[in-house]
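Hello,

Our lab assistant flagged a job as stuck in the queue for most of the afternoon. It eventually completed. Since we weren't sure the result was trustworthy after the delay, we are filing this so someone can double-check. Below is the sequence as submitted and the structure that was eventually returned. Let us know if re-running is recommended.
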Amino acid sequence: MSLNQHIAFVLTLNAVWIFSLVRQSKKEGYRFPSIFRGVFLFVLYNFLLALFAAAVVLVHRPMASLTVLDPDALIYDSHSHTSFSWDGRKAFTPEKNLEWHHEAGFHAAFITDHNRVDGVSRAKINFDAQGRQGTIPLSGEEVSLQNCHLAVIGNAYEISNSTYDGSIPGTHKFLSVMKSSHALVIASLPEYWFYQWKTKPFFINWGIHGFELINSPPVSMDFPPSMRSEILALCREKHLIMTGVTDNHGWGSTVYVWNVTRLPGWRALSREKLDTVLIEHLRKEKDNANQIFVRVKAEPKDNLLWLAVDPLRQFWEAARSLPLSHCASILVWIWIPWFIKRNKKS
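-- returned structure --
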């Protein structure tokens, strides 16, 4: 879920808990032991919820993956990180990055650490040493500029951001320089939404190759649907590349989005050749290069008032889209505590 959806979900749970505790205290006559127990249980519930959230983020678990029947279809990620990024999880080494992508069904992944290429360089060395098995590491770097993050994919060398950082003219200079490069530059969420929404036409004039339509961290998933539709229409009009990215920094075992492109014969290509051929394919096909596959969930609405009923929307989407056996399993686990409590009373 998005950041706002997480907040709405936690507030709804707390509201239900408070209502239940107040109701119980009222039945017992609002005595001090009853009120004290209610406050204690409220704090305990929130502590357990925090532990659950921490486990979701930190503990590895089985992941949903995407598979394709067409042997020429390539599933790839165009934006991810390793421990070499300043905000990457220290245990999320380049090897772990590739393992994570492999479990999620990605054939290839651009590793785009912040202003560094050490991570992708190490990933390539280890991939070659291990017999070229699993997800293929591809060249990339996330260049951090003034209120602007740009995912550069296919770069042959490390790009220093210090030359261009600190001002919008610096971003203009960077994009002008990158016009003569083999690499592609994709505007990253949420930065262009937060800081550069009004200047995005300048990005296009300066030579940006595309935009991220979907970025998976919770804060980026609050990108309003109307704005996403506007960017999609702009990319169609200007023939710009559109991508969905994991932007994974090593936290969590959930995949929200995959890119799929049709690249005949890619399985026979070497790692180095695939890097080049995929970039050329994206450059040539532009807005027709990708299909973006997204997990089923209740998407955020433009109107924040919808957050009041968002938990109900999430439950409905889960019930509507999950297999019957999965729904049955969830219902069993929901009702187990009730049966245990009932049997204790009896």
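-- support follow-up --
The delay was a queue issue, not a problem with the job. The result is valid. Residues 1-61 form one domain. The chain has a mean pLDDT of 92.
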